Amino acid sequence: MGRNLARNIARHGYVTAVHNRTDAKTTALIEEFGHEGDFVPAVTPQEFVDSLTSPRTIIIMVKAGGPTDAVIDELAPLLSEGDILVDGGNAHFADTRRREAALREKGIHFAGVGVSGGEEGALLGPSIMPGGSEHAYAKLGPILADIAVSVDGTPCSTHVGPDGAGHFVKMVHNGIEYADMQLIAEAYDLLRHGLGRSPQELAPVFESWNSGDLESFLIEITARLLKTDDPRQAGRALVDVILDEAEQKGTGRWTVQTALDLGTPVSGIAEAVFARALSGSGVQRRAAQGVLPGPSTEGTDETGFIAAADAEQFVDDVRAALYASKVVAYAQGFDMIRAGSTEYGWGIDPGAMATIWRGGCIIRARFLDRIREAYENQPDLPSLLVDPYFADAVARGQEAWRRVVVHSVQAGIPAPGFSSALAYYDGLRRERSSASVIQGLRDLFGAHTYKRTDTEGSFHVEWSGDGSESAS
Ligand code: 6PG
To answer: Is 63 left (phi over 0), alpha (psi -120 to 50) or beta?
Structure first.
């Protein structure tokens, strides 16, 4: 990805010094792509730093964690006050905060910059989420805007906020990416096992969805995946021979861990992370197969398969359920961005994040324009779900959503993303939640007190005494 980003920068007319720990990689880059721009290859870090004019701007693209610290430790002593060091990897935002603070003491501007779009995006125009100081952004901003993709003439790059803000937003982007992919996988599973259609037969369904509300990069590439044959055997779907154990590098897990600390319910992202973990729990899955029974009607016409006459209705129901669940996942992600921004004093503009996610990144989707509008209309929107456009869209799909969840339960096809999104929606809209029972129990077993609906203050019942209530 680093090499594609360097090519993108050079292609935009910037003199680009390049260095890789493995010199052969630098040589290969120059041999293959040297004609694309003004590259300056450097063999050693010192040579690399010396080749740059001061104040220097350096972008590092290495694996998150230890490798990033190692490169920073190697470069920092060679840098001077005023230089800008950019980490374009998927760093944990807490690491970025730590690194930024440490380098600030040395007068070096450290900017954690989220870059999304994979290898191709890095070359042709990614979505960029730059964090760091205003000072660093004043120099970096124009370069990043040049190399980012543009949508409707607006570059998909904007200053997110200080220190770790850019990497925080990139982390939440990835969390949403996990939720989005989980929902798509569930939709496919429900259609495959609900209708008994082959991947090749389902590809056109996703293609048609991609011309409506669900239009997005992930839906587009799902259609592409489903119609791809196994390269080893024509006529056999590739998806049927890919091992069904999802891997993860960690950004989804970080999102959930951070959400727990912030107290933000990102249940869609959490379900997606746990669904990946369950898929990878090979020992337990093998032990359960043939031991744990499914519904008695599993695989029969009663609930296992949708009658042919209802097939089109079911496809449309799944589409509606997917859209509604997706809105919930984004609503939760945007809630988390707001919570993080408040916690760390970043001042992140959620509408601006929707704007820069419209192109280049993995979760780019048509409805991000609607999200941008929602925050434009009401910057302090308490939840995306209550924006009139989204409230109406989800309300129109909710009966279909419920039918799909019921079917998944009856047919024994797990749809944790769909059902937890629906539970969140119901939890949000109900006037009274079941938490009064929890509060009552907490007071009963631990004198933890409760608040009342009709009076201010905290109260406790003398459960083992005369049952009277006292204020605490
Ligand atoms: C992006 C992607 C990118 C990467 C994910 C994959 O925005 O370009 O999100 O960062 O593909 O990190 O993550 P997992 O390996 O955890 O699925």
So the answer is: beta
